[in-house]
Amino acid sequence: MIIGLSMVIGLMEESEAQWIVxxxxxxxxxxxxxxxxxxxxxxxxxxxxxxxxxxxxxxxxTIITNQAHQLGQAIDWLEAxxxxxxxxxxxxxxxxxxxxEVEAEGGGNDYSLDLYTIRLHRFALTK
Length: 127
Hints:
Layout: H1 14-26, H2 41-51, H3 54-71, H4 75-90, H5 94-104, H6 110-120
């Protein structure tokens, strides 16, 4: 589970993600919050605010964390993807946002196309 500043991302069970989300929700107003111990906490809190559904956020966190592990990505990537999912939840069209992000990343280079594919298929096997 990712709580420390370790750059290695392990697989995450949804119950672990739910624990992190519940911890953030219950301590969001404290100045010395456990959120400060989780590198991607601000992005996660934004996602919680965008969805209003802590169970959905736990599901998203689990999926993205496991993708990061499978792809050998670091905490920065995980945080960026949580922020993307926040934008996707507040966007009128996830598909249009995906296309806009490809354009912003270079309009068709290998990295932007790989990221597009990862994001496009992120929830395909879990719904």
